[in-house]
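User: I'll paste a sequence; please echo it back and then give the predicted structure.

Assistant: Echoing your sequence first, then the prediction.
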Amino acid sequence: MLKKLRLVGSVAALSIAGLAYGQQATVQPSPIKRTSLGKVEVPGASYEVVFGITELAAGHKAGRHSHPGPVLVYVTEGEFWYHIDGQPERVYKAGDSFQVPHSAIHAEGAVGSKSAKVMAVFIVEKGKPLVQMAQ
């Protein structure tokens, strides 16, 4: 009886330790940090304007995705590579700006060992998410 109790106690302790480790492993800082600075509906239209800051961790590559409207981007810190499907990859650095066309499938990421930070103005269809992952 005592042996069974010890065995059950050991299995329970290992299970709890495994759960705790699993929870710690999933609590990693996100490689993409988005900070919303404001949102306003466009009068008489089915669009809204969302203004924010996006930070990409050093070395992070965002997966291919699109936005349900055009996006105006200004790089405030670091260097940022950007690639629209079917076009050559471009690198933008602090002080540069560019536009992401409506629904263009693209990917981007920070260049080098430093993070990149951009200010973005999204003009998106109401009720749709800002980011839609590509298939």
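The first strand starts at residue 32 and ends at 41. The two ends are 56 Å apart (CA to CA).
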